[in-house]
Amino acid sequence: MNIKLTTSLLCAALLTAPFTFAQGKGTPASPGQRANPGLNMAMQQTIEGTISSVQITYGVQYPSIVLDQTSIKVAPIWYLLENDFELAAGEAVGVLAAPSSTAGDPYLYAVAVTKTASGAKITLRNEAGVPLWLGTARSGGNAAVPRIAGNCIDPASINTVSGTIESVTIGIGIQQPVLVLKTNGTLMAFKLGPERLLLDIDLELKTGSELTVRYATATCCDEYLALQLTDATGNTTVLRNDDGTPAWNN
């Protein structure tokens, strides 16, 4: 798979996928879209459990997760992935949520999400219930997102491997693409970064191409995280810092 897709091919792929992404970074939002529901912060509650499904459909500003039979709206996909925070069905989380103060709106809205296994946390709205992404990334900036625990990088696990690209799978739901590298007859899977980042950089991830990956193990999820990618011509793209924090937000 060639990750450097044309605009038309990318749109076609997204429209035929099980989940369709509506929140592209850099697309100006209208005043109506930017208006967020007022939240009753006095009625905050914490819901813990395992995510049974992630709901993402075309035109939805806030994807939702179903947790303990409760539907909770979270945040735009791009905002979660830009801050290296994924959500998947089957994952145990705790969500601090508040109800809407708008009549006829039955949803709860996530204020913060914490992963049970790793303790990684992302705060989505401030004390007044206002989304932290408003007025920042839409104009090209990056919001400071209070998080803890990061990606649980084991510094001793940082290593480098070279091989040929076997495949690059597009992210499903609120997840990042994964690159599979064939090296010495072994297949290794590496989590990359937001799709926007991969489309922006001048680096083709094409099946059969030679690639060197500097990576580390995320102990909290037992996954390999790509830190740097270097192609056959020596061009290097830094995805994450050695502590696991996203380099794209530097």
Describe what this molecule looks like in 3D:
The N terminus is likely disordered. The strands form 2 sheets. A 5-stranded mixed β-barrel has the order 1-2-3-5-4. 30% of the residues are buried. It is built from 4 helices and 13 strands. It is elongated, with a radius of gyration of 19 Å. It is mostly beta strands.
Note the main attributes of this structure:
10% helix, 250 residues, five-stranded mixed barrel, single chain, mainly beta, five-stranded mixed beta barrel, disordered N terminus
Summarize the structure.
By secondary structure, the chain is mainly beta.
Based on CA atoms alone, the radius of gyration comes out at 19 Å
Strand order of the largest sheet: 1-2-3-5-4
Overall shape: it is elongated
- Care to count the β-strands? 13
Low-confidence stretches: 3-35, 137-149
Order of helices and strands: HHEEEHEEEEEEEHEEE
The share of residues in helices is 10-25%
- Give the rounded overall mean pLDDT: 78
Q: What's the number of helices?
A: 4
Give me the secondary-structure category: mainly beta
The major β-sheet equals: 5 strands, mixed, barrel
Beginning-to-end CA distance, first to last residue: 28 Å
β-strand percent reads: 25-35%
